[in-house]
Design brief:
15 helices, 3-stranded antiparallel beta sheet, about 350 residues, hpI Integrase, Chain A, 3 domains, mainly alpha
Length: about 350
């Protein structure tokens, strides 16, 4: 054991050897601090922590999970998860071991969120807690999920507003050429805003008339591609942009400096256009719902075809977009309609 004071820096240094390996630390203000460090370090080396004794705090496991999410999910998804975990730590005013937090603590937090922001918000936070603990279990960091048996709060069903065709046309008339091209591309691909804003010319094939969209909206968050057939309108829009493109940038939709548009830059575009067109406010994503609805109402596209157009992996997701009516219910309606016609004829005879 060697402990000495550096005469130039006037700090204490501790150095020792254990199992033929040197350990050294400097910067102590007193000899006692240096000696304490050495004793603690020797004890740590003699009794190394085992997996059973290592207990990760909630902030540690959530940070590890969020680091993994950065490579798998969209930025907004990652930010939402981070917000929920920070909010929870603020609520409990502590950072306990993740495996020591009882189910009741989460229930109390979710009740607080429900009272403050509603049932939907509380259920969304519960989903993020379950995702965090399930990830920890898969990574063998924890052995159980304290939120697994917590039930969602009941939610009132919401009906998403789907703008009529006339409103979309009025918005298009109110838009400049740049925004009109963006809206038409969203319309004719039924794409998500983030996907269309990331479109590059490598994703456009005029000869074979397809456009490629990339998404992370799949289980696991891996980046996947989908090719969609070009409509004549989409072909005309993209061909004109290609002929007049800025050759220094690969992006189809971009700023004057060549960088692609971000969602934040375009977030308020539809609000301004709807106000200018004097129509009920709707966002870019409502266009996707509108396209799904007109395809369903046309009777010319099956649920599976609409599912492929929207690029959903599950038909139940597509069904939520279009709210298809059970064919058997349509048959019942026809029977009632026919019965009604008989009643009218009887009234005429009488």
């Amino acid at each position: 054991m060697t402990i000495w004071k550096d005469p130039k820096r006037k700090v204490w240094v501790s150095k020792f050897q254990y199992q033929k390996k040197q350990y050294k630390k400097e910067g102590f203000q007193t000899r006692s601090e240096a000696l304490t460090w050495e004793v603690e370090k020797r004890n740590e080396l003699k009794n190394p922590p085992t997996p059973e004794t290592i207990r990760l705090t909630f902030s540690q496991v959530s940070t590890m999970y969020l680091e993994d999410c950065k490579d798998r999910f969209q930025k907004n998804t990652w930010r939402q998860k981070a917000f929920v975990y920070r909010n929870f730590l603020t609520f409990i005013n502590d950072d306990p071991a993740a495996d020591s937090i009882m189910k009741q603590i989460f229930i109390e937090y979710l009740r607080y969120r429900k009272d403050k922001d509603g049932n939907c918000t509380a259920n969304r936070d519960l989903k993020e807690f379950k995702a965090l603990y399930n990830w920890c279990i898969r990574q063998e960091l924890l052995v159980k999920n304290p939120c697994s048996n917590i039930e969602n709060y009941p939610e009132e069903p919401t009906v998403k507003y789907v703008p009529p065709a006339d409103d979309i046309n009025r918005v298009l008339l109110a838009a400049d050429r740049e925004d009109m091209d963006l809206i038409l591309t969203l319309y004719h691909t039924a794409g998500r805003t983030s996907e269309v804003l990331k479109l590059t010319w490598e994703d456009v094939n005029f000869e074979q008339r397809w456009v490629r969209l990339w998404t992370r909206k799949r289980r696991g968050g891996e980046l996947q591609e989908d090719k969609l057939a070009m409509t004549d309108t989409l072909y005309d829009v993209l061909k004109r942009r290609w002929d007049n493109r800025d050759k220094t940038t690969p992006h189809v939709f971009h700023n004057t400096d060549g960088t692609r548009y971000t969602y934040i830059q375009k977030r308020d575009t539809m609000k301004k256009l709807c106000r200018k067109a004097d129509v009920k406010n709707f966002g870019f994503h409502a266009i996707r719902h509108h396209v799904a609805s007109i395809l369903a109402d046309s009777g010319k596209a099956s649920l599976s075809q609409i599912q492929k157009m929207l690029r959903h992996r599950r038909s139940t997701t597509t069904d939520n977009y279009i709210k298809t009516l059970d064919p058997q219910l349509k048959q019942v309606a026809n029977v009632l309609d026919e019965y009604g016609k008989v009643e009218k004829r009887l009234q005429v005879v009488r």
